[in-house]
Predict the structure.
Amino acid sequence: MTRARILSKLGSSPAVFSDGAVVAGITTIDASGVNITGVATATSTIIAGITTIDASGVNITGVVTATSFSGDGSSLSGVGVPGVSTTGHSIFNTINASGIVTASNISIPDNGKFTCGAGDDLELYHNGSDSYIRDVGTGDLIIQANSLQMSNTSGTNYLHGTASAEVSLYHNGNVKLATNSGGVTVTGTVTTDQVTSGISTFTGAISANAGIDFSGAQTNAAGMTSETLDSYEEGSFTPVLSYTSGASGVTYSVQKGRYTKIGNVCFFQLQVNLTDKGTSSGGSVQFSGLPFTPAANGGSYNVNNPMVNFVAHGGLNASDDGLVPFCQVESSNLVTYWHDTGGSGSWNYLYHSHIEDGSIFVVHGSFTV
């Protein structure tokens, strides 16, 4: 049926075609499509630009425009707009809709992007290797949640944050750092190149394998050679009384020592209570078993290893009440001496004959390591 025959049937009442088409208010039917201002119904009609109009529906190869469509659109397919469901594969250049609901996935190829904002400020995409959430705008990228969790695909946490409470960082699923109202709690060892400014309070041990540098915390003396505290240690040791040429048969009721090493200086205390002074092969009384080897001093008193205090609580034979015992660090041992403070001021070694079974000795002092 030609356009002229259609138009000749139009009037104020609906035109009825012999093949069963009922059309009202048709403006145009031609190869470009159908333009309808009213309602179109048909049972079976074939028109140029229209494939079929029959009881199954309308199949149009052109464009259909109308002032309104009747119905809720629930029977339409291949359209993804509110109130319209699609089945199968649908391609659209542009969709303007108040909302999109899908019962399955929305698939976008590699390097295709979800974008938001007038200038496509927010992008969500996969480039074939990595996935991106990219904010290219001028504002902040804000993620808001009462409980925020970041984890791997197995659910092992990287980060967990709780509103008005802690934020926790994880290593292999275990919390290593967590914020709290007073600061942060660290579980494990903290390794740092430098700690500067402010006051830090640590609970537990601090590992400082390279030492503690005080170069910024003090005024240096003219002869300063180091500002790094490189060692601290404390513990116990077992002192041994012997003689410089050898000893045998020495027994004890008390034999104990303690030390604290700070930097290169060792501070010590020892106590020896004899039950038998044993026999001597010669030489003076000495104490060995020190926790560290003293620095070399040439076998005589010097500033590195000075004389140390030596107190005899009993068991010393002194012919002169002015003789005072003392020790000198020599060749890794504490060698004992007498000092005549009441007479000549001279000194001499303390020998086997000067001590007794049951002698009690207490020595304390320091030496350079």
Remarks:
- The mean pLDDT is 76.
